[in-house]
Amino acid sequence: MNGKGKYILVAIGLIILGLMVWYFSNIVAYILISVVLSFIGRPVVDFLNKVKIKKWTCPPALSAGVTLILLWFVMVMFFRTFIPMVAAQAQELSTIDVNAAAHSLEEPIKNLETLIAKYSAEGDDFNLKAVVIDNFTSFVKISDVSSIFGSLAGTLGNIFIALFSISFITFFFLKDSSLFTGGVVLMVPAKHEEGVRHVLDSIKNLLMRYFVGLFFEVILVGFLVTIGLSIVGLPFGTAVVIGLFAGMMNVIPYIGPIIGATFGMIIGIATNIHADFYTEILPLLGYMALVFACVQVIDNILFQPLIYSNSVNAHPLEIFIVIIMAGSMAGIIGMMLAIPFYTILRVIAKEFFNQYRFVKKLTQNI
């Protein structure tokens, strides 16, 4: 077969593979989630495998089973602890009288309308009150607990299948760390097997450090925000909900903290809507902004350098450029997936294209 025919076969194979991934997207998602969970649980499995009592050593299946149970225990306790708080906060928001709330904020809204009209290009009046009512009404409707849990109940069967599938796949990935590698190696020519194995091992080690670090970053950021907001006067349940959201949004590099802080400010206003704006709400917002700023400084100085730089061995400026490019191409999802995909590309480039000076410079720390 000539070279042109080989390229055509490769192209057809890639198209068929892409169609299969699209058609079985749910299964692919289960496998990817299982891979991430196995990365997080791998340190526990390695520790249990080293346990030795006299002549008895912990079997790999037992280590994997205990780790899987521990992972699900942590997640169940997480949801059992925080879901009631989130539901209570949502119920409280759903009872807010939006028109009355807008009336209590009428004076600062008029001042903002005057300021906007003053600097407006056309000089037209701007009805900020109507905008606030419309947007706040939409926000409160999102907090309708009955509709949220009703939609969850309708998909309970699919959720059970997903949880069982992810648990089953994760168990075997924890039990045999080379299982995923072996499956990928089967799809490449024998002459490239050694290189592909080396690539997959490097990717596994780098991403394991990244996801474990990211997991602890979410917990630490959420904890610090919760403690800080409790200190400045928010009820503990409200502070926990805001801290939980801020921690999860922090997974999105750079823009995530802004989303978390904005959500926190909205909740802060909503839960104190009947208080005086200038003497109570405005100082509270200032203290909340200070809390978010302090947590972000701590995150930038301590947490993120360890996760985004050291875990994937890349320069912070390099990471920043990659994240911005991913965000421009695929939005928030792209920003979330930028670092893992960039890590994979760097490892592949080092293994197969290291003869180029640019690639050698870019991957010298891997």
| Major pleated sheet | 2 strands, antiparallel
- Category by helix and strand content: mainly alpha
Number of strands: 2
Spatial strand order of the main sheet: 1-2
Strand content: under 5%
Helix/strand order, N-terminal first: HHEEHHHHHHHHHHHHH
Poorly predicted regions are 142-150
What do these coordinates show?
It is a multi-pass membrane protein. This is AI-2E family transporter. There is one protein chain. This protein is mainly α. It has a domain at 190-258 and 275-365. 82% of the residues lie in helices and 1% in strands. It has 15 helices and 2 strands. The protein has helices at residues 3-23, 25-49, 60-94, 98-104, 106-119, 128-142, 145-154, 156-175, 179-185, 193-231, 236-249, 256-270, 277-310, 316-352, 357-362; strands at residues 52-53, 56-57. A two-stranded antiparallel ribbon has the order 1-2. A hairpin with a 2-residue loop joins strand 1 (52-53) and strand 2. The longest helix has 39 residues, at 193-231. It is globular, with a radius of gyration of 25 Å. The two termini are 38 Å apart. The model is unreliable at 142-150 (pLDDT under 50).
